[in-house]
Write a structure and sequence with these properties.
Dihydrofolate Reductase, subunit A, 4-stranded parallel β-sheet, alpha/beta, 3-stranded antiparallel β-sheet
């Protein structure tokens, strides 16, 4: 996320789903500490939930393996309608009956491992607003986009209290984990 709260830059397109210059939000994954952070996070990952827009924008890069690559964690895509063209032997399940159903199915698939809502402002906002998130992880990149897609909009009028769990620096981002406090 950019310092001003955007998870995509402005002027998104098919060629640049993260917007013009938005790819720099992922540059931290290329440094040594960023790689360690990714490995630590994926070590306990059992399933992923994504929104349809994230799926549509990312499947050309993810392919049939999904965002976890060779680990092939199941991906539950929340959508109004499943796409007609899906990668053969893919890890994707399309959920058309709401975020609660997607979470239930992802938890069942993950067993005692972590379920991650990965990417997509709309789907993340829906889970946060519904009180279905235990923890929020942010990779804060030192850039100001000024426009794009904000992660923390449309959350309602209630304050959501967070507790800092961990802050880790890498060469190109600060990685912050928050526990969502119960109301």
């Amino acid at each position: 996320m950019s310092l001003d709260g955007f998870i995509t830059a402005g002027n998104q397109s098919q060629e640049e789903p993260l917007g013009e210059g938005g790819q720099q939000l992922h540059a931290w994954m290329e440094d040594e500490r960023g790689q360690q952070i990714l490995e630590e996070a994926s070590g306990d990952l059992g399933a992923v939930i994504a929104g349809r827009e994230t799926y549509d924008d990312s499947v050309p890069w993810w392919g049939s393996d999904g965002p976890t690559g060779p680990a092939r964690c199941p991906v539950f895509v929340v959508t109004h309608e499943a796409p007609s063209d899906v990668p053969e032997d893919g890890v994707y399940t399309f959920i058309t009956d709401g975020i609660e159903s997607a979470l239930e199915q992802a938890k069942a698939a993950a067993g005692d491992q972590t379920v991650s809502v990965m990417g997509g402002a709309s789907i993340g906002q829906q889970y946060i607003a519904a009180g279905l998130v235990d923890e929020i992880g942010i990779h804060l990149v030192p850039v100001l986009f000024g426009s794009g897609t904000r992660l923390f909009e449309n959350l309602g009028d209630e304050h959501i209290q967070l507790e800092i769990i961990d802050v880790t620096e890498s060469a190109s981002a600060n990685h912050i984990r928050f526990r969502v406090s119960l109301k």
